[in-house]
Automatic annotation (TrEMBL):
Residues 1-178 form the DUF7527 domain. The lineage of its organism: Archaea, Methanobacteriati, Methanobacteriota, Stenosarchaea group, Halobacteria. It comes from Halolamina salina. This is DUF7527 domain-containing protein. InterPro entries: DUF7527 (IPR055949). It comes from the Archaea. Pfam families: DUF7527.
Length: 178
């Protein structure tokens, strides 16, 4: 089977294509350009996609790096979006979400251009995973942030945490509600 044909059938390729083609329009149609602004504004800057990519934390040679299933970068190589995937029929679990947040947060702290961390599952999210996302984003009734599903690092800094489900090539945002 030719490489390009194989690539187009992967969940990674489908996710990236959905993000840059469909998600942007969904955000615009639901008038969430402001509440999803950090991510919405970063999407046009995506220049390259790295599968099974690593992101270095800091500039020194001995700095550690963290890995993601997909890393979308700008032309200077800065990470804009990091993504972990669950391509099994098993539901996405709390430890899976905790791992994404544990890896994405130091990336956002050392790369101010990181706009979002996505978790994509071809199954569904266990309640514990949804609770983990809500806790990380300060969700709940008394939330005061103008940004949807936003992991705050400081008063102005942070990144969007988005949970996506995919079935038969279609992608749907579970968190946040658009």
């Amino acid at each position: 089977r030719p490489f390009e044909e194989w690539l187009h059938d992967t969940i990674e390729y489908g996710f990236v294509e959905w993000l840059i083609r469909t998600f942007v329009h969904d955000v615009r149609e639901t008038r969430n350009q402001t509440s999803m602004g950090t991510l919405y504004d970063a999407i046009p800057d995506i220049d390259r996609i790295e599968l099974r990519g690593g992101v270095t934390l800091g500039e020194e040679a001995e700095e550690e790096s963290v890995s993601f299933d997909v890393v979308l970068r700008d032309r200077m190589g800065q990470p804009l979006v990091v993504t972990d995937l669950n391509d099994s029929r098993e539901p996405a679990t709390e430890p899976m979400l905790e791992s994404l947040i544990r890896n994405a947060t130091p990336v956002a702290e050392s790369n101010e251009k990181l706009s979002a961390a996505f978790f994509v599952t071809s199954s569904y999210y266990e309640p514990g995973a949804l609770e983990t996302a809500e806790e990380a984003t300060g969700g709940g009734l008394l939330k005061r942030s103008k940004n949807k599903s936003f992991v705050k690092l400081s008063r102005k800094e942070g990144y969007h945490l988005c949970l996506v489900e995919t079935r038969e090539g279609e992608f749907h945002v579970s968190v946040p509600e658009l």
